[in-house]
Design brief:
It contains 12 helices and 12 strands. The chain has helices at about 15-30, 70-80, 90-95, 100-120, 165-185, 205-215, 235-245, 265-280, 310-315, 320-335, 335-345, 350-355, and strands at about 5-10, 30-40, 60, 80-85, 130-140, 185-190, 195, 220, 230-235, 250-255, 260-265, 290-295. With about 350 residues, it is α/β, with parallel strands linked by helices. The strands form 3 sheets. Strands 3-2-1-4-5-6-10 form a 7-stranded parallel sheet, with helices on both faces. It binds nicotinamide-adenine-dinucleotide and thymidine-5'-diphosphate. Thymidine-5'-diphosphate binds near residues 92, 205, 220, 221 and 229.
């Protein structure tokens, strides 16, 4: 008899969003086995998963999604009923410096997973019955909006990616839909706006700036700081993914967003206000750290999401309001300076060696 009612493979579960999702699934579904597949690149950190690593319904598999043999072998052993795919190269600036790494993981890696899932599921008597492949993507595939134009990205908005990162994610979205349309695989695609919260690698705006304020280092604002992003608390993204994976209609796409647009410079000033207050500094202490630097190449002006479909069809809305989420986030980084030191020094990389090698 099967010990677990269902097995879900999550890729990229040691990363920022993936680790919040894995923790949520492991805790909320003790009758489901969660298999975390992650290559542990610079962005993967098993310390993020400490609190669930010894739970009976959690397994970690170190593997590169671009390695077909490794993925095939893991799928043959665990026979997942579903895949939630988050593993990716995720930082726009890195994609500008090294686009091929993004094609490799985000495009080739996704195709490898689709093929491994297809091979497994088509070999089963029930084939695709009860199976799901959920691809986690970004709103950046839709391109950019103009500030003040009142428009929002909808699920039907034309794809118009600009950066190598968003182009690679757009490509992977198309491949996932192709596996639905061609082979009948039950797929789901979600496109989410910018996430923030604990455990985000400090190369992204919010954790980078909290770390820099903490160390009294300059805060490099690209261009004039006029670009606009929609921010969603990471645990709300995890709850939306849980909802879509379990209740979404196969073949569908859902946009996920926070209905929370900020101009970068306004967000940076708000962040400074919160960090200074948490550090006990007089208001305005860290404003002098703001440093305008050369703009990012091809910098998208505005992202904004219409998340009414997921609300209407699945009843999901964000639970965390921005002031609360931002303060919790700031508190977490200030209270976890060791985590920040480890990821910035690279010391986190030997956690796998220490924890898993001799098991
Ligand atoms: P992240 O960079 O924090 O984590 C990525 C994870 O994938 C890491 O654990 C890394 O080790 C793993 N990984 C990378 N390459 C791999 C490979 N070849 N094989 C196996 N594992 C590999 O990313 P994140 O911010 O948590 O984003 C997760 C997903 O969500 C991505 O697909 C991203 O495109 C998407 N997304 C992110 C945001 C955001 O604001 N961060 C918003 C919308 C969508
Ligand atoms: P980022 O966190 O890299 O997310 P994304 O590029 O996926 O939206 O950046 C968020 C915004 O902040 C984006 O408009 C770029 C800007 N930014 C800076 O101004 N300075 C920085 O050092 C970083 C990392 C980002």
């Amino acid at each position: 008899m099967k010990q677990f009612r269902e097995t879900i493979a999550v890729t990229g579960g040691a990363g920022f969003i993936g680790s919040h999702l894995v923790k949520r699934l492991v805790k909320n579904y003790p009758d489901k086995l969660i298999v975390n597949i992650d290559a542990l690149t610079y962005a993967g950190n098993l310390e993020n998963l400490k609190e669930i690593e010894s739970m009976p319904n959690y397994v970690f598999e170190k593997a590169d999604i671009c390695d077909p043999e490794a993925i095939r072998e893991i799928f043959a052993r665990h026979r997942p009923d579903g895949v939630i795919h988050l593993a990716a190269e995720s930082h726009v600036d890195r994609s500008i410096a090294d686009p091929l790494a993004f094609v490799r993981t985000n495009v080739i890696g996704t195709i490898n997973l689709l093929q491994a899932a297809r091979e497994l599921w088509e070999s089963m008597p029930e084939r695709y019955e009860g199976k799901k492949f959920h691809h986690v993507s970004t709103d950046e595939v839709y391109g950019a909006l103009e500030p003040g134009d009142g428009l929002l990205f909808e699920e039907t908005t034309r794809y118009q990616p600009h950066s190598p990162y968003s182009a690679s994610k757009a490509s992977s979205d198309h491949f996932v839909r192709a596996w639905h349309d061609t082979y009948g695989m039950p797929t789901l695609v979600t496109n989410c706006s910018n996430n923030y919260g604990p455990n985000q690698f400090p190369e992204k705006l919010i954790p980078l700036f909290i770390n820099n304020i903490r160390n009294r280092r300059p805060l490099p604002v690209y261009g004039k700081g006029e670009n606009i992003r929609d921010w969603l608390y990471v645990e709300d993204h995890a709850s939306a993914l849980d909802k879509v994976y379990h209740e979404g209609a196969p073949g569908s796409t859902y946009n996920i967003g926070g209905n929370n647009e900020w101009r970068n410079i306004d967000l940076v000033k708000e962040l400074i206000r919160v960090v200074d207050s948490e550090l006990g500094n007089p208001e305005g202490t860290s404003l002098d750290l703001i440093t305008y630097v050369t703009d990012r190449k091809g910098h998208d002006l505005r992202y904004a999401i219409d998340a009414s479909k997921i609300e209407r069809e699945l009843g999901w809305t964000p639970a965390t309001d921005f002031p609360e989420g931002l303060r919790k986030t700031v508190r977490w980084y200030l209270d976890n300076s060791e985590w920040l030191e480890n990821v910035t020094s690279g010391a986190y990389a030997d956690y796998y060696e220490r924890m898993y090698r001799n098991r």
